[in-house]
Amino acid sequence: MAFSSLHIHCKLVACAHACRYCSMGKKTLSALEPERLHALLARFLEWEAQGGLRIGYVVNYTDNFDRRTLELLHDLARRFPRTYEPLRRMSLGGQPLRTDQELKTWLAERRAFGCISAHGSLAGTGPVHDHWNGQKGNFDLILRTLRMAGEMGFALGARLFVARSTLTTLKDLNDLLDTLPMHPGNWRYAMPFFYAGWAAQLEEERIDEAVRDSLPDWLLALMGACISTGEGCRSEREWIELLRMAPDTPERGLVLNVNAQNIAMLEQKCFEEIVSDLAVRTQAAYAAIPSAAELCERYGDRSGTKVYGLARCLEMKWLDRHLADHPMPFERALTHLTLS
Questions:
Q1: pLDDT at residue 297 above 80?
Q2: pTM score over 0.85
């Protein structure tokens, strides 16, 4: 198994509410000072610049950073520019309720730190969305934020969740999104809930082929449901056919979860030791479970018509079934079979 990248995860900011479809499930904050994490990330990014592994980093559950964390992340972006920068594209999930004036101040602060777009995930409209997001008024908050962001020049993104309980609201939602300010950089797409985290318990909400194939053209276009291209939302049996052509040994990235218990070790050890240890543990995690092909053979439903947005969702579903039959401890968080 080849590793060409290292993804550092360390969550500093908690969500203001808990979405029922959250793909990360139970959340754990790192309990670290932002300055200490900044120094560690800078150390790894300097190593990358000297020929080390490609580095990615995620430091949030929600993009509601305080001023000091914004300054530290901006410093990293300035010194080590990359395609993905935490401050450049802002997600609106997990935000607290704000007045219009508070929103204006909050958006202006982020624009000053280089943010160019705002992205909202919407599970229907009004009370339907608020139910799924666990915060009364959240739908109004996201629409107000998107509108104000668009008026301030941000590009706008929107993800529409296609579930049995949201279907009747999606046309109204799409029409509302059409009233927002238009910019060349705007984007919009639709997909089912992920099979991950809390959403792994929502299979009764998942649409099937019959529902998908009867959707109006405008919604099918947002789902990218052109099955012949290998893109878009496929049923389990359709994904199985595609997975048969996937490589046996795909390239994987290493995942480094940073917390108060291991940061001192990471500050002191050389990169070769850190990567070697992580690679050994990651190999061991994968060795403890069946391969994707084996999981598919044992647990894949070749007549399954429920629709998933990612092949990985099915791998996670099949692994859950395997672990129910064969419980075992292993470091799942080091594999691609979790979303965090």
A1: yes
A2: yes
Using the 8-state DSSP alphabet, how is residue 23 labeled? T
User: Which ranges in 192-310 belong to alpha helices (H)?
Assistant: 209-213, 217-223, 236-243, 263-268, 271-287, 292-299
Contact present, 255 and 277 (Cβ < 8 Å): no
Residue 314 is encoded by which pair of tokens?
């099915």
Domain positions in the chain are: 3-334
Asked if residue 170 lies in contact with residue 162, where contact means CB atoms within 8 angstroms, the answer is: yes
Distance CA 9, CA 59 (A): 6
Q: Which long-range contacts (CB under 8 A, 24 or more apart) does 67-74 make?
A: 67/109, 68/34, 68/35, 69/12, 69/13, 69/34, 70/109, 70/110, 70/113, 71/113, 72/34, 72/35, 72/37, 72/38, 73/38, 73/113, 74/113, 74/114
- Which pLDDT band, with edges at 50, 70 and 90, does 247 fall under? low
Task: List, for residues 7-23, the tens digit of each pLDDT value.
Answer: 999 999 889 999 999 99
